[in-house]
Write a structure and sequence with these properties.
Number of domains: 1
Largest sheet: none
Shape: elongated
Radius of gyration: 20 Å
Structural class: mainly alpha
Strand content: under 5%
Order of helices and strands: HHHHH
Oligomer: single chain
Distance between the termini: 36 Å
CATH class: Mainly Alpha
Amino acid sequence: MRRIAIASCLILSLALVSPALAQSSYDEELSQLSGTLRALMVRAERVQPKDHASRITIQHELFELSKKLHQLEEESMSANLELQRKSGAPDRQLLVAASIAKTLDLAQSLTGYFLDTRDKVFMSSAMKLPAASCGVSQNSILKTSRKERPTP
């Protein structure tokens, strides 16, 4: 009986710790994906309009980035829904992770449109998005005091 109680406590503690570990991995992954996007944006600006092969390569990399961003958004939203099912309250860090992933995906789309059209309005808009979304990191949310957090 005691072993069952210890095993139950261990499983419960792992279940409570795993969302926190997942959140920090989302934060790290978002940072990496944001860096990848910034590098692709620089390459997109520098590529010559007649360099079809380079444009296609960048478009392909943007598409692969989009798939990763969609997966991260889906995973964070799924984790949030699971936590809501268990605790009844949404998880702010997971919602921010999903929102940042969506914002980065919009920026990658705008970068692709810039490659297609060379219209600077797309690149200008794309450059504003990652800076705005990554200015609010999950670490800053974790530092928010409980007094500032709304009660569920």
